[in-house]
Structure formats: C-alpha cells, structure tokens
Amino acid sequence: MKKIWAIVWKDIITELRTKELFASMFTFALLIIVIFNFAFDFSAEIIPFAAPAILWISFTFAGVLGLSRSFALEKEGNSILGLLLTPTDRSLIFAGKMIGNIIFVFIVEAIILPIFVLFFNYNLFGNAVPLLLVILLGTIGFVSVGTLFSAMALNTKLREVLLPILLFPIIIPVIVASVKLCSAILNGRPINEAGSSLQILISFDIIFFVVCAIVFEYVVEE
How far is CA 10 from CA 15, 18, 79, 83, 168, in A? Predict the structure, then answer.
C-alpha cells in the first residue's frame, strides 16, 4: 500500500501544481451539461428519460479527456522509465495510477452533479448517497480499463484519438448499467428495478480490474 500511495500522491501533487487536468475536465463536462440543458429546454417530457444519459455522457467524455493525460507527463519527462525501474510489481503501478485517475474523475463528477441537478430540476433529498455510489462504481469500471488503454496508447502519435476508439466499445456495459441505475434513482423508482444492472456493474469492476492489472505488465514492457 505504501508503494501504491506513493504513486497516487505523486499524481496528486503534480495536478495541484499544474491544475491542467481539473480545469479541462470540469470545463468540458460543464459545457456538455449546458448544451443539453438548452437543447431539451422545450421538451420537458423527454428530460426524465434523457437526463441520466446526458449525465453519463458528460462524465465519460470528461473522463476520457483526463485519462488521455494519465501517462502524458511521464512520457514528456521520460520519467516512465524511472517508474518502471522501481523495485515494485507492475500491477502496483497500475493500481496507483488507476486510483489517482479515479480520484480526479470522481471529484470532477461530484462537482458537476449539483450543477446537473440545478439545471434539470432534480431533487436528490434522500437519494444523494445511492447516486454517488452508483457513479463511483461506474467510474471504477471505465477508469480501470481507461488506465490500461492510456498506457497502451502512450507511444502512439495519436493517443488522444486512439484512446476513445479503444475504450468506448469495451465500457458500453458500464455506461448502460450506470445510466439505468441513475435513471431509477433520479426518477424515484426502486433500485430493484435495475438490480441486474447493479450486478453487471460490480462484476465488470472486479473482472476488469484484475484483468487490467495482470495485462498492464505486458503493455508497459512493449
């Protein structure tokens, strides 16, 4: 855990110094929310069905924007070699980078959520905690896969373009399950209606975290 925390703390300190990641992710997510809010301003009957999808569109695209920068600083400073030369297992490096990415993405999501609630006139009284838990589970799913693909696209010239092409087909189950669960919570329906989606989300998180941690060693060696 000390090795994992050292990597997480390195990323946090770097972001606090530059503030590039937070600013770009927040601005991009906010822009999506504002555009969709004006787009559905005269179609109130569509909002209960479309709003959860809009929320996850903003989360996903902002997350991809952040993930594309996950290994960028290591690449630019060539410090990725120093990270790989440390006497630690590659899976711990993956876990550290993944936890750091989850922290960054989830903080942006937590800031965007009240703005989304304000724009789309939702009342989260009593539902805020379940909604945040679902968002966290969805974030873990797509960030775990995104961290692996970010490392995979590190040495390519078009890594910002390649990352979403690789990532989006894999995380479709996460996005669909998260949208269904958020829709049930936001519209006041019992979460049991989307129980299968919760099972899919948890299973995806566990399976892909283990698989990505194992495969990461071969990805960074290449």
Answer: 9, 13, 12, 11, 28
For 91, the token pair is 């899976």
Q: CA 99, CA 10: separation in Å to the nearest integer?
A: 12
pLDDT digits (tens, 9 = 90+) for 172-181: 999 999 988 8
Q: Both tokens of residue 41?
A: 């301003």
Q: 3-state class of 29 per DSSP?
A: helix
Give the confidence band of 159 by pLDDT, cuts at 50, 70, 90.
low
Catalogue the long-range contacts made by 8-13 (C-beta closer than 8 Å, 24 or more residues apart): 8/96, 8/99, 8/100, 8/103, 11/96, 11/97, 11/100, 11/101, 11/104, 12/100, 12/103
Task: Please answer whether residues 163 and 153 qualify as being in contact, where contact means their C-beta atoms are separated by less than 8 angstroms.
Answer: yes
Please, what is the end-to-end C-alpha distance for the chain in angstroms? 26
Instruction: Assign 64 a pLDDT band (cuts: 50, 70, 90).
Output: confident
Residue 44: its H or E element: none
User: Model pTM?
Assistant: 0.85
* 166 has a pLDDT exceeding 70: yes
